[in-house]
Amino acid sequence: MARSLRKEPKWYLRDWAMVSDIGKRAETFVACHLLKAVEGWTDLGLGEFQLAYLRDKEKREVDFVVVRDGRPWFLVEVKQSSGHLQGALAHFQRQLGAPHAFQVVIDAEPITADCFTRPDGPLVVPARTFLSQLL
Fold first, then answer.
1. What is the pTM of this model?
2. What dihedral angle (degrees, nearest 10) is formed by the CA atoms of 109, 115, 120, 121?
3. Of 9, 39, 65, 80, which is least surrounded by CB within 10 A?
């Protein structure tokens, strides 16, 4: 099963405002914030961090995986507006043993909660809440 899993880099524009498709713009927006966090955490000496995406041979995919010291730390699926929780997120979290998995929703109102205190199944989290807890 592990051979069918692909963890690859993904290319994004650094200026999400130039992306015309609203869903791709949301994903690019979050990608820029995750990349900034990953580079910052590494530069601060908090570990060796990487940003990638996941896809398997069954075409299930998750937008982002943040890897810390060679191990999956958290998964992120980005959605413009609320909807049902993506099944691939839970699948990959179980398969990889990542402590955290988030479906980040751009249009959701922010809440007061620490996303990283509950290492359980995937959580639906407002983008403003999630991004405020990164670097």
1. 0.89
2. 30
3. 9
Q: What is the pLDDT of residues 9-62, one digit of tens each?
A: 556 667 777 788 888 899 999 999 999 999 999 999 999 999 999 999 898 999
Region class of 98: left (phi > 0), else alpha (psi between -120 and 50), else beta: beta
Alpha-carbon radius of gyration of the chain:
14
